[in-house]
Design brief:
single chain; 73 residues; mainly alpha
C-alpha cells in the first residue's frame, strides 16, 4: 500500500444501488474498479486515455470503443 489512507473503502451497496454501474458490461466494470484502485493508491488519474487504458489493462482501442463511454458518459 502506497498511501496512509488504509484499505480502499468499497461498499457493495454503492454498486448494487447505482444503476449506471450495475448495468456496465463486465469489461467496463473491471476497468472502473481498476481505475478506482489506481486513483486510491496514486492520486488523481491523468487526462490521457492511453494511460487510463494501460491502468485498465486493455488496449487503447478497446478502452475507447468499449469502456470510455461507460465510465465517462
Amino acid at each position: 500500500m502506497q498511501n496512509d489512507l488504509g484499505p480502499l473503502p468499497i461498499d457493495h451497496r454503492d454498486f448494487l444501488l447505482n444503476r449506471e454501474v450495475k448495468d456496465m458490461p463486465p469489461i467496463a466494470f473491471k476497468a472502473y474498479i481498476l481505475l478506482l484502485c489506481e486513483m486510491w493508491e496514486n492520486g488523481p488519474l491523468p487526462h490521457n486515455t492511453e494511460k487510463l487504458a494501460e491502468y485498465a489493462g486493455v488496449s487503447h482501442t478497446i478502452f475507447i470503443n468499449k469502456i470510455w463511454g461507460w465510465i465517462d458518459p
